[in-house]
Design a protein that fits this description.
The chain is 82% helix and 0% strand. The chain is mostly helical. The radius of gyration is 17 Å and the shape is flat.
Amino acid sequence: MYSEVSRYMECIEEIINVALVIERFEEAVAKGYLSNILNEIIKHSRWEFNYEEKNLAVELLETSL
């Protein structure tokens, strides 16, 4: 019984957290941090997937934003 309740609570917490993340993201974008956020996502994705070659689209993102 406890594991079922725990599992349901985790699902509810995840839903709440996703809404909060979206809200914080929208606030950051409104403050002009979109390029910083995207560059951080790119850096962490490269690290996570062990990808070292620079993609042209990524270079354009870094220079244009």
